[in-house]
Amino acid sequence: MCMYVNFFVFFFCFCFCFLVEQFEAKYKEQFPLGNGGCGYVFAGYRKSDSLPVSQTYILIKNESVGTSVSVSLLDWYELENELILVLERPVPCDDLFTYILLNGGALEESEAKVSYSS
């Protein structure tokens, strides 16, 4: 039994390190953009073309959180205790809270209204 456990630990460590190396080979992490109850967000860029990206580290829990986004998912990596999402990061950009503060503390209905068309 011990031999199987040791093999599993070795295999898991090998796979984990391989995924981290794959991620680090493609992307450069620069500075933190923020954090919240689900994880952390860092600014970065894709090394192949210097495209600005955001790297979202989500702690893996046994619960679901629903959300809607307006940026594209470029890549993702599932690690032991976290999920790394690489999203496009338009420059310049602000989060909603900053946008509201910079625009008088409230949004007009026309700004806040989201319309979906097929």
Walk me through the topology:
Layout (H helix, E strand, L loop, with lengths): L1 H25 E9 L3 E8 L4 E9 L13 E6 L3 E7 L7 H7 L6 H4 L6
Antiparallel strand pairs: 1-2, 2-3, 3-5, 4-5
Structure description:
The chain has 118 residues and is of the alpha+beta class. It has one domain: Phosphorylase Kinase, domain 1 (2-Layer Sandwich). 31% of the residues lie in helices and 33% in strands. It is built from 3 helices and 5 strands. The protein has helices at 2-26, 96-102, 109-112, and strands at residues 27-35, 39-46, 51-59, 73-78, 82-88. It has a 5-stranded antiparallel sheet with strand order 1-2-3-5-4, covered by helices on one side. A hairpin with a 3-residue loop joins strand 4 (73-78) and strand 5 (82-88). It starts with a helix and ends in a 6-residue tail after the last helix. Residues 1-14 have low confidence and may be disordered.
CATH superfamily label: Phosphorylase Kinase, domain 1
- CATH A-level architecture: 2-Layer Sandwich
Task: Kindly name the structural category.
Answer: alpha+beta
Please provide the count of β strands: 5
Percentage of residues assigned to helices: 25-40%
What is the C-alpha radius of gyration, as a whole number of Å?
Answer: 19 Å
Here the CATH topology equals Phosphorylase Kinase, domain 1
Strand content: 25-35%
Biggest β-sheet: strands ordered side by side in the sheet: 1-2-3-5-4
Average of pLDDT: 72
**What is the N-to-C succession of helices and strands?**
HEEEEEHH
